[in-house]
Amino acid sequence: MKRIHLFLIPLFVLILLAGCTPQGGTKAGTGSGAAKSAAASSKPVETLSQIEEKATKGDPEAQFNLGMIYLEGSNVAKDPAKGRMWLERAAQSGYAKAQFNLGVMYYQGGDGVVQNLTKARAWFLEADKSGDVLAQFNLGVMFYRGEGGPKSFPKAIAYFKKAAAQGYAEAGYNLGVMYAKGEGIERNTVEAIAWFEIAAAQGNTKSDGVAKGLLAKLTPEEQKQAKARTVELAKEVEALAHPAN
């Protein structure tokens, strides 16, 4: 059987949100088909002076947008230090997209930022408080690897489950890998297949083939168990995505 590997942290592209100049959408780019983290806003385009005025008055979204303008050099001279300062102001007000982007900046380093995995993990933890799915996925990877703090397979599994519940397919794939290999949890091929099937349904292109390969090695009775577990797990994931009040 071919070796299966986790999807790890993708390279993130920091792009300005709509609602200011220029337009765009914050997204995560990866060769494995990561989902976009935010849809474009339908707000009217604002001028730089309007954004600056709102940011100065403490509007977190404006602070975030202004930070991205200076980080990208969008119709202004690129100024990473000023961009990071505005992102930090937005992040300190609890603005999840700013918290997430700061996590990415400290994870990658560059543009005047010294790589600091401890700070990266801390900012992803803050973004998770607002339910940011990419922060949850990245936390799963960082706890899996032991980056920015102690390694913890149970926490990696917990964060991957949170991301999978929001439809992030690579998180479900990673859970399938962990169950298939018995990493941090008892090896369980039936559970692994179920997670690969969930990930495939969410759009991960590798998962379907891996699930079929594992399924072919099971007995007919085990195959029935795997199919039943997939149906059951789909309901569990749906319940996680929409918890009862």
| Share of residues in strands | under 5%
Question: How large, in whole angstroms, is the Cα Rg?
Answer: 20 Å
Low-confidence stretches: 9-42
Overall shape: it is elongated
Helical amount: 55-70%
Extended strand count: 2
The average pLDDT is 83
**Can you summarize the main beta sheet?**
2 strands, antiparallel
Q: Could you give the order of the helices and strands?
A: EEHHHHHHHHHHH
**What is the CATH third-level topology name of the largest domain?**
Serine Threonine Protein Phosphatase 5, Tetratricopeptide repeat
- Euclidean distance between termini CA atoms: 44 Å
CATH superfamily of the largest domain: Tetratricopeptide repeat domain
Please name the defining characteristics of this protein.
single chain, 245 residues, Serine Threonine Protein Phosphatase 5, Tetratricopeptide repeat, 2 domains, 11 helices, elongated
Give a structural overview.
Helix 9 (189-201) packs across helix 11. The chain folds into two domains: 1-129, Tetratricopeptide repeat domain (Serine Threonine Protein Phosphatase 5, Tetratricopeptide repeat), CATH 1.25.40.10; 152-245, no CATH class. Strands 1-2 form a two-stranded antiparallel sheet. Residues 9-42 have low confidence and may be disordered. The chain is elongated, with a radius of gyration of 20 Å. 58% of the residues lie in helices and 2% in strands. The chain has 245 residues and is an all-alpha fold. It has eleven helices and two strands. The chain has helices spanning 48-56, 60-72, 80-92, 96-108, 117-128, 133-145, 153-165, 169-181, 189-201, 207-215, 220-241; strands at residues 12-13, 27-28.
